[in-house]
Please model this.
Amino acid sequence: MNEFTINSFEEYLRIVSDDIGVTDQKGQRKRRYFRGQTKRAFEGYDLKPSIGRYAHLNSLPPAERDRLENEVLETFSNHLLTYVNHLPRNDWEALAIAQHHGLPTRFMDWTTNPLVALYFACRDSKKDKAGNPHDSAVYVLISEPPRFSELRRQQKNGAASAEEPESAAPVSGDDDGYDDFGLDESGEPLVLADDELETATATRPRTQPEPTKEGELSPFDISGNVIYDPPHVSPRIRAQDGVLLACHQPMQPLEEKDVLELVISQAAHDDIRRRLDQYGVFDKQLFPDLDGIAKWLKYRVFKINGMT
Model:
């Protein structure tokens, strides 16, 4: 795994802007995804989805694990619409909501915003058993997996025009990673308004999302990792520029060739936290609720004594 060591906020900005190819030679923005971790992967916090952290699942055959995931999702979905105002339309949206609320899934949280990833890497400095502080890390996904919206569009085009089989091949694209975040192919928001929700629920039971239709791409049947732009079921997803990586081998960590590691020196954590606060990348912005405000006040008043 290639890596850089970051010793300052300015150095981080320079590296993500210049050294990792966020823009191409013509100055056009390339899509990059970032993930911040308070512990580095080699320290035992592998780059794998939350369901992959349950070692006993490794003893199950893949088909049995898939069956278990589907059963858990079905149970979750049976309770879902009692608590949320968003009507999931398929397993992708249902899994995204489950991930957001802490259920172990085959999705991994990433962001298109490198400062958000830096926040998660430095928010809480960790120490080892001897009390020595840990370096943290931001990981950059450099393998450019296809996006669900692209695959779905290609699938529809392929069904409409059998004479163009090449349209079914994954295309990574090079447009801005923000351009269709939270949008379907028509450009309409995925989150339903209250009146739309009432109309939708009047025509079908309020139990669970429609299963993925036969022939449609399922998160349980993908043959490679896929980027999924989740609907804005929570203000946190929008605030954090969140995306999800659907992992086709959820029990296995990402391959080293797929990521770049930016090691954030623990000695720089305090200054980076202050700089992020100055840039508006902190608790009350990324967690736009009472929890975020409380965390922000705790940090500003009690941890740094009002200093920024």
Remarks:
- The longest strand covers residues 136-141.
- Strands lie at 3-6, 33-37, 107-111, 136-141, 226-228, 242-246, 259-264.
